[in-house]
Amino acid sequence: MIVVLKHNPNQEQVNGLIGWLQEKGVGIHTSVGEANTILGLVGDTSKLDIDLIAALDIVEDVKRVQEPYKNANRKFHPEDTVIRVGNTQIGGGSLTIMAGPCSVESEEQVVTIAKAVKASGATMLRGGAFKPRTSPYAFQGLGEQGLAYLKAAKEETGLPIVTELMDLSQLPLFRDVDVIQIGARNMQNFDLLKAVGHQDKPVMIKRGMSATYEEWLMSAEYVMAGGNEKVILCERGIRTFESYTRNTLDLAAVPVMRRLTHLPIIIDPSHATGKSWLVEPLAMGAVATGADGLQIEVHNDPAHALCDGPQSLRPEDFDRLAKKLLALQAAVRGMEG
Ligand code: PEP
Ligand code: MN
């Protein structure tokens, strides 16, 4: 961090600032120029409040030269994080395919879909039991019963489960859940992030609709600061001026996250587009850009789905897509040598 002091600052205040920073364990390099004095702060500045320093009388400007996230930062952890889930892994060159219905509707529905997606090559089962819906009158999910149906599908197929946690009070019900999903709408629910930071389960954080990369990584940092290092990031489209698609898929997130963090990155082309015919090309794009996996909505009867039918693939379409994705991933890996 660099602190530029105002011209001719009060020396007592400058000494006070330097003493305070040193107490926080930060080293200081002072450069006295003709117009301004500059303090170069070295060490862990992630806990310093930049706005507080900027508001001081003697301070002209403050700039961060180091990212405010430490645990998630690739600079301090150069190797990719690989997360084991059941007998599969996320990251480390594998392609994770999470597939299943938007919402769990019945035991038969989720078990049927789970069997189909497993046969096509999916490595995890998705399905919402607690649903964040824009309208309070829309189907809100089956809740605890939905989790029981997911468990039945897991027992039947062996597929690990990923499902959304909406509220702290639901956590005791998540014993059999393999990956806790934090939805886009809860990306900055800091109490929820802190709570899952104390869990011994992987957490997948979906990017908030208008969250910057840094805000998204700071949410990962919340979980990691609590001691849970098993964090997965999921890009699911962001809000832009375009209204043709449900959201705008930001595929640049894949190489950018690769650079900024060691955490695995998953792409959700279903929520990103809202249209089933756009799922395939964008899923292929995600694999081509090097994503660690995909989350795709699949429904056996999209026309009658209780949620997100228009973006759901039929099992036979998913089957074709999964085969293409695995072939593409093998080709991409071949090119990387
Ligand atoms: C979901 O995956 O079911 C979901 C609601 O996604 P998002 O939080 O990305 O909208
Ligand atoms: Mn959905």
Name the assembly state. single chain
Ligands, ions, cofactors: phosphoenolpyruvate, manganese (II) ion
Low-confidence stretches: none
How many strands appear in the DSSP assignment?
14
Number of helical runs?
Answer: 10
Write the layout of secondary structure elements.
Layout: E1 2-5, H1 11-23, E2 27-32, E3 37-42, H2 50-54, E4 59-63, E5 83-85, E6 88-90, E7 96-100, H3 107-120, E8 124-126, H4 144-157, E9 161-164, E10 179-182, H5 190-196, E11 203-206, H6 213-225, E12 231-235, H7 253-260, E13 265-267, H8 269-273, H9 276-288, E14 293-297, H10 315-336
Parallel strand pairs: 7-8, 7-14, 8-9, 9-10, 10-11, 11-12, 12-13, 13-14
Antiparallel strand pairs: 1-3, 1-4, 2-3, 5-6
Helix pairs in contact: 3-4, 3-10, 5-6, 9-10
Could you walk me through the main structural features you see in this protein, from its secondary elements to its overall organization?
- The protein is 34% helix and 18% strand.
- The protein has ten helices and 14 strands.
- The longest helix has 22 residues, at 315-336.
- It starts with a strand and ends with a helix.
- Phosphoenolpyruvate (PEP) is lined by residues 102, 128, 132, 164, 183-185, 206, 236, 271.
Structural key phrases:
binds manganese (II) ion; eight-stranded parallel β-barrel; four-stranded antiparallel sheet; alpha/beta; 337 residues; elongated; binds phosphoenolpyruvate
Short description:
This protein has 337 residues and is an alpha/beta fold.
